[in-house]
Amino acid sequence: MYDNLSSGSIKRALEKSISPEGFGVYIYLCSIDHIESIKRKDIERVFSVGKDKLYRILNELKEKDLLEQRMIRAGGRFANQCFVIKAK
Question: Domains of the chain (ranges plus CATH)?
Fold first, then answer.
């Protein structure tokens, strides 16, 4: 459990000067065993935020190079998305 969560990942997030909401979502994502299975709605529910605010937070994490969002396609069409915590 908590494979992605370490003092290094916390330090890295703090060095990037992200918002408190961004820090919370980042730590939450780091603490999940199978991050590829997390859905946007799950994060919205945990943090009591709407879709627009969550996308702002996720975009901040992507801009700070802490998170990668991969789009999964099936049959040439968008099927799902997954999140990947970026290593140093």
Answer: 7-85 (1.10.10.10)
